[in-house]
């Protein structure tokens, strides 16, 4: 793959000019990725996309964008965090919404008017992430709480999803179809809440404990796909040490026959090696691995975009056997990619802790 680079003189001149230029003064990318635009001052850690609206957790609080024109997102509303904020630390990462109610950490927002979102309730928890279940009638949070949201102004903790389970907590949870929830935990679990939302059952478990921090999980096509996807996160210096089980990896799981066996089996794992920018790799990491998204056409294999901090945005292809191969990348040395999302089959948004929102176009094979 061909990379793009600028001379050291241009780099220093660009850095001296400060953050005014939307395009980074230095970028490294594969030939199948293009930079489109940047939206500054909305440094984010994760988002939820519902229709033509994107709800992003940023340093300042909730930001809402109109993304009906994917290459020209428009900020239309926001609400500051309702609690004292420690600068430089992202309290919330992964808001979830049905377009009317939104949950972020342990707070509930009314977003029915996206230009005037407002915090309307909260529950007692130290949740880092929370997930809507049954169209936001319930929330499952990262600390284990099950919250009744049928009256959003008075959310009520009505149970614990982690009672008696192999994993005591999860960094995040994802509802893949109504009442079927997967956990970003060690081990990864599949929960069935269809009959009793306040007492979900563990119906499948990863048959190998990965002994690392599982950050996020997805099961494409509403849980009908053969492959379940999981991504880890870890502290930087150990991210590419061969044989170190603490390192964060992107993992594919085989779900074939899971209803009968109650097991899902890891197939392949991938991580970017350390190296030099001109070869498409970062020389070091502050952290490694973060939020990812499967392509709209993912079907028993396909493309995934992964935000990987210093290693930028990586484009991975999952084969029909669940094997992982890198297909492209986009890196900015002065960036920390936190989350990446397919907005169309070609346009990708990257929430960056330092740069704001980058817009990329993937031009390679779909």
Task: Supply Rg.
Answer: 20 Å
Mind summarizing the main beta sheet? 8 strands, mixed
Task: Estimate the strand proportion.
Answer: 35-45%
The count of strands amounts to 31
Helix content: under 10%
Low-confidence stretches at least 5 residues in length (pLDDT < 50)?
1-21
Query: How many angstroms does the end-to-end distance come to?
Result: 17 Å
How many helices does DSSP assign?
Answer: 3
Brief account:
The protein has 366 residues and is mainly beta.
Explain how this protein is built:
By secondary structure, this protein is mainly beta. The protein contains three helices and 31 strands. It has an eight-stranded mixed sheet with strand order 15-16-17-18-23-22-20-19.
Write the layout of secondary structure elements.
Elements: H1 8-16, E1 28-29, E2 33-39, E3 44-50, E4 53-58, E5 61-66, E6 74-80, E7 96-97, E8 101-104, E9 107-110, E10 118-122, E11 130-133, E12 138-141, E13 145-148, E14 156-160, E15 172-177, E16 180-184, E17 189-192, E18 201-206, E19 214-218, H2 220-223, E20 227-232, E21 234-235, E22 250-254, H3 258-261, E23 263-270, E24 287-288, E25 292-294, E26 302-307, E27 313-318, E28 324-331, E29 337-342, E30 347-352, E31 356-362
Parallel strand pairs: 18-23
Antiparallel strand pairs: 1-28, 2-31, 3-4, 4-5, 5-6, 7-8, 8-9, 9-10, 11-12, 12-13, 13-14, 15-16, 16-17, 17-18, 19-20, 20-22, 21-24, 22-23, 25-26, 26-27, 27-28, 29-30, 30-31
């Amino acid at each position: 793959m061909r990379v793009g680079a600028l001379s050291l003189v241009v780099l220093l001149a660009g850095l001296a000019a400060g953050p005014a230029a939307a395009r980074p003064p230095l970028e490294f990318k594969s030939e199948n990725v293009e930079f489109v635009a940047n939206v500054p001052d909305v440094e984010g850690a994760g988002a939820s996309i519902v229709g033509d609206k994107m709800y992003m957790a940023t340093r300042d609080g909730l930001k809402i964008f109109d993304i009906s024109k994917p290459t020209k997102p428009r900020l239309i509303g926001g609400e500051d965090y309702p609690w004292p904020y420690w600068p430089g630390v992202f309290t919330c990462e992964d808001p979830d919404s049905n377009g009317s109610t939104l949950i972020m950490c342990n707070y509930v927002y009314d977003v029915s008017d996206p230009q005037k979102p407002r915090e309307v309730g909260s529950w007692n928890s130290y949740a880092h992430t929370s997930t809507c279940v049954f169209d936001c009638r319930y929330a499952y949070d990262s600390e284990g709480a099950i919250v009744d949201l049928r009256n959003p102004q008075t959310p009520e903790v009505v149970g614990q999803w982690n009672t008696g389970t192999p994993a005591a907590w999860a960094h995040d949870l994802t509802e893949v179809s109504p009442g079927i929830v997967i956990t970003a935990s060690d081990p990864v679990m599949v929960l069935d809440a269809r009959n009793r939302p306040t007492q979900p059952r563990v119906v499948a478990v990863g048959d190998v404990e990965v002994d690392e921090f599982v950050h996020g999980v997805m099961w494409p096509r509403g849980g009908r796909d053969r492959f379940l996807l999981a991504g880890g996160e870890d502290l930087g210096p150990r991210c590419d040490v061969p044989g170190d089980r603490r390192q964060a990896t992107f993992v594919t799981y085989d779900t074939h026959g899971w209803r009968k066996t109650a097991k899902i089996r890891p197939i392949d794992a991938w991580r970017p090696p350390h190296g030099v920018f001109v070869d498409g790799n970062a020389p070091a990491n502050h952290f490694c691995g973060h939020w990812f998204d499967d392509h709209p056409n993912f079907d028993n294999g396909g493309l995934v975009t992964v935000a990987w901090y210093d290693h930028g945005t990586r484009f991975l292809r999952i084969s029909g056997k669940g094997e992982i191969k890198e297909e492209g990348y986009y890196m900015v040395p002065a960036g920390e990619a936190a989350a990446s999302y397919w907005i169309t089959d070609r346009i990708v948004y990257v929430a960056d802790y330092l740069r704001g929102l980058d817009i990329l176009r993937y031009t390679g094979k779909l």
